[in-house]
Amino acid sequence: MEFEQMKVQLLALISNKTLIQATISQPRQKSNDLKRVKLKPVEIREEYMIQLEYQYERILKHENVTLQDLTAKLDMLFEQFRQAHAEFQEQTIQVQLSKKNKVLWKSSQNATAKQVDLSHNRKKQYLLDDSRVHPFLVRLGVQAEDGKIKKQKYDKFKQINRFVEFIDDSLAHLPKDKTIRILDFGSGKSYLTFALYYYLKVEKELDIHVTGLDLKKEVIDECNHIAQDLQYENLQFLVGDINDFNEETQVDMVVTLHACDVATDMALARAVKWGAKVILSVPCCQHELNRQLQAPALSVMTQHGLVKERFAALATDSIRAELLSLVGYDTQLLEFIDMENTPKNILIRAYFTGKKPTNEQRVKYDEFVRFLNAKPFLENELQILLK
């Protein structure tokens, strides 16, 4: 079979919409960073397309192409690779090319006809697809080398994807004409920091620089080591406290996850003063209001320590959201992950709009904190902006 005839025949089989999956591999050049390309059919907005998954040494990239555009893609791929394995509904094709493009074509009939399965388009669609290998998830121990999500890490995988959904929703609010600066206060083991970087830099190919900040030196050292292994050049981790971090004068996105008590308020205040366009915060251990709370009308609730603690936590986050609204942010309190995974499941999402608050908003806020006898730390930090 001639080389051009092989491409025509392969394309015809794919165009018949009988493809199950295919892999194009065996790079012609050893120095080629692209190791293989996988193809599978997908349905996007009711249009049949082929998804190409480009597997590099450390990263994955994806592209969905129409059948009309697939010819050019196959031309390009067979310039780089010498082997193809394709499964169709009724047959399996194996193609091997010599250095001079002589074609060895083998075809075998399947014992039973296979079905094209597009069910992945109807199940829960994770932005970080659980059917693909994500190098950072493998490195962090969430995925096995074959891409399978480890059973004990599946809740973490869902949490990571929920966070990535919030990141994706925030894209329209980030600048497009400069490097996007992102700070993550209290990054800890940095599952979500790596996810943020991977999604924005690798998947979306945005110009970003991400800094994770934490007090634990051994954790920071390990995170930097992982970032270097993955060749994430614009991701760094530093040892430091929120109050002592003065390396930036302007930041576009601030993330703070499970910063304890008023550490969350410190991070929110710094984000506002930096003019952050996006704030994503998952608070933790809201003790401040619990200590201050004196509201006799609520004594039926607050006489119970557990109930008082939970009410204080909800009231604290409501106060934080309202304060951000008063200084020009469109703010919402959203569920981060299911309650069955952790009770600390509220995320504060704030996009800067510059909208001025109404007198009614300020009056309602003042009445609420006065009723609770609260003196919020964040209000004091933002006092100049609230005047």
Automatic annotation (TrEMBL):
What's an example GO BP annotation here?
methylation
In the UniProt record, does the keyword Oxidoreductase occur?
A: no
Keywords, sorted A to Z: Methyltransferase, Transferase
Q: Which GO terms describe its molecular function?
A: methyltransferase activity
Domain named Methyltransferase: residues: 155-292
| Protein name as it appears in the record | SAM-dependent methyltransferase
One Pfam family of this chain:
Methyltransf_32
